[in-house]
Amino acid sequence: MATEFSHEANQSPATAERRAEILANPGFGDYFSDHMVTIDWEGDYKTGGTWYDARVHPYGPLTLDPASAVFHYGQEIFEGIKGYRHADGSVWTFRPEKNAARFANSARRLSLPELPAETFIESLRELVKADEAWVPTGDGEAFYFRPFMIATEAYLGVRPAKHVQYHVIGSPAGNYFGTPEPVDIWLSTTYARAGEGGTGAAKCGGNYAASMIAQTEGEKHGCKQVIFKDPHRGDAIEELGGMNVFFIFGKENKIVTPELTGTILEGVTRSSLIQLAKDRGMTVEERAITLTEWREGVANGDITEIFACGTAAVVAPIGKLKAEDFEIPAPTEHFGEISKSLREELVGIQTGVVEDRHGWMTRLI
Ligand code: COI
């Protein structure tokens, strides 16, 4: 059954001038639209519960009891998904059923209630209906939805919360790294972001919190992102602090990405790029890739391009790999041709200028 959302309009939205100023240079994650979505849940994790009071209301601070479980035990999950403006003014989103399914998987892992996929998709539609004017039109820009779920029950015992809230906020978004040039990456040898049987495949705040110390270490060495090693396999690499990683073997027309081992996040961009590469006749390998293969592949010219990918960053070229005691040079100083054209094809599908041959797009408004 479709969820009914009530609406409360923001009485002091951003002025048209202020919004235009923000949309002229949205950056990433700095500005938020005038409204947000909230849905409450009450119940028992073991026996079930009810989602109720779905509402679109003015964006603003949440009032939560300081004993809310999210503040103590980190019962929290989130998603990242974008809305794209097409030439006729309509707004579309990309494979939302995949984000909804991943959100449900993350919920299960964190003992949170599952939100039905239709309600997840409807919540994006309701927010963008209220804040349509915030969807940017610039090249590579989109409206970034951040759905999240938090345990709001005030209770200090350790067990799944009986009161939970789902929210969606929206933010106009441009380039995640602020530059189209390759970004250097720091290899964390001290810290892991996930472990076997842990939460690596769930999109929960704790994984990102755990990655920050390594990212700060990387920043001291001039790197904007950190890459982690696969905790199971010696010097095999796993994923970045918040993105998946791909290697292009240009001469062999081959693309390689670490396989999903349970510690890696199953990226929607990752799986879409795998499909687009297969469509082009490229060989796609999902397997362990080691630092030795990285070092040798760049040195002998087999690895011609490396990129990071995710909803926020789309496809972002990687330059050097830096570590405490070694460095692997960048395979190319520029945005490599294959990475660039995969990005253009993906963004083309998302923005309606390339045929959506896999039926990936869903119209929101
Ligand atoms: C996304 O790509 O949407 C993410 O959630 C990653 C985060 C680094 C912004």
UniProtKB/TrEMBL annotation:
| Modified-residue entries (N6-(pyridoxal phosphate)lysine), positions | 203
Record key words, sorted: Amino-acid biosynthesis, Aminotransferase, Branched-chain amino acid biosynthesis, Lyase, Pyridoxal phosphate, Transferase
The alphabetized list of GO BP terms reads: isoleucine biosynthetic process; L-leucine biosynthetic process; L-valine biosynthetic process
Pathway in which this enzyme or protein is active: Amino-acid biosynthesis; L-valine biosynthesis; L-valine from pyruvate: step 4/4; Amino-acid biosynthesis; L-isoleucine biosynthesis; L-isoleucine from 2-oxobutanoate: step 4/4; Amino-acid biosynthesis; L-leucine biosynthesis; L-leucine from 3-methyl-2-oxobutanoate: step 4/4
Q: What chemistry does it catalyse, as a reaction equation?
A: L-valine + 2-oxoglutarate = 3-methyl-2-oxobutanoate + L-glutamate; L-leucine + 2-oxoglutarate = 4-methyl-2-oxopentanoate + L-glutamate; L-isoleucine + 2-oxoglutarate = (S)-3-methyl-2-oxopentanoate + L-glutamate
What Pfam families does this protein's entry cite?
Answer: Aminotran_4
Q: Which domain of life is it from?
A: Bacteria
**To which protein family does this belong?**
Belongs to the class-IV pyridoxal-phosphate-dependent aminotransferase family.
Known InterPro entries for this protein? Aminotrans_IV (IPR001544), Aminotrans_IV_CS (IPR018300), Aminotransferase-like (IPR036038), B_amino_transII (IPR005786), BCAT-like_C (IPR043132), BCAT-like_N (IPR043131), BCAT_family (IPR033939)
**Class of this enzyme:** transferase
A GO term, aspect molecular function: lyase activity
Q: What is this protein called?
A: Branched-chain-amino-acid aminotransferase
EC assignment? 2.6.1.42
Cofactors, names only: pyridoxal 5'-phosphate
